[in-house]
Write a structure and sequence with these properties.
By secondary structure, the protein is an all-alpha fold. It contains 13 helices and no strands.
């Protein structure tokens, strides 16, 4: 075990992936609690597909992928929120509409662009080799900004999550904090896509919250448990990926699925004993 850890930390690209991935996992887990409670958890899946389309177009135009995809995905998040508030479309239908269109656009651009040296699998399923040093610095800065804003507006996000009408009655600007939640989610999804891929990044949003809710009841305890689960699952997933030469994103998701099964069993046992 010690030898595995020593070998793991001897590779610069793995240390880099652990740093960025842990920060992204924490961001996704914290935001995921509110998104799951608001029944908006699939926004992560939708925005990741938008991100894939934006990344494909950026690569085709020889532009910096992160710098292009972040504003595009942020706009998509605001659009989804607007569609849910103002139109006949429900959240799940709006997400399906935007995500499938964006994914199709990304696949078409990737297949038609001549001389485009892009490994589509690395964007679809993630790659710990995909991030440059510049991407790492930008990702760390954005992740720390997301964590800071979440902590700063924790009480407002808590109020908006559970009862928007009561929050509005107390003077909280509900629409503003919903926009903030969408913005933070969009940034987290784009940053995490390079490691987890468009098809797997939403698991970082959903699994920690669902697992924690099987055992804990208060918002704060679910938040803390989700953060710990996210960090632990990402580290274990990367270690397993290194040890058995399996894709990092899939390995992290498999660990999350196993943890969910354990927490589900613990919650069931607790209910039986009560």
């Amino acid at each position: 075990m010690l030898e595995l850890l020593r070998d793991l930390f001897s590779y610069h690209f793995i240390v880099r992936a652990l740093l960025v991935g842990t920060l992204v996992a924490l961001c996704a887990a914290l935001l995921g609690v509110s998104l799951v409670l608001k029944r908006y958890s699939m926004i992560g899946d939708g925005l990741s597909h938008v991100g894939f389309g934006a990344l494909s177009i950026a690569m085709a135009l020889h532009l910096a992928p992160l710098q292009v995809s972040i504003p595009v995905v942020v706009l998509a998040a605001f659009l989804l929120l607007r569609l849910n508030e103002r139109s006949q479309l429900k959240a799940d239908a709006a997400i399906a509409l935007v995500s499938s269109s964006s994914l199709a656009a990304g696949v078409i651009v990737t297949s038609l662009t001549a001389g485009m040296n892009t490994d589509v699998n690395s964007y679809m399923f993630g790659s710990i080799l995909a991030m440059s040093d510049g991407d790492v610095l930008l990702s760390v800065a954005l992740s720390l900004a997301v964590l800071s804003l979440f902590i700063l507006f924790y009480h407002k996000i808590f109020a908006v999550t559970f009862d928007e009408e009561f929050a509005a009655a107390t003077g909280i600007r509900v629409r503003l904090y919903n926009l903030l939640l969408a913005l933070l989610t969009a940034v987290t999804i784009v940053v995490g896509m390079r490691l987890m891929g468009a098809m797997l990044i939403s698991s970082l949003v959903i699994f920690p919250a669902l697992s924690s809710m099987r055992v804990f009841r208060s918002f704060r305890s679910v938040i803390l448990s989700s953060a710990l689960l996210a960090a632990a699952a990402f580290f274990i997933g990367i270690a397993l990926s290194f040890a058995f030469s399996i894709p990092a994103g899939a390995s992290v998701v498999a660990v999350h699925a196993l943890l969910f099964a354990c927490f589900f069993a613990a919650g069931w046992l607790r209910a039986r004993l009560d």
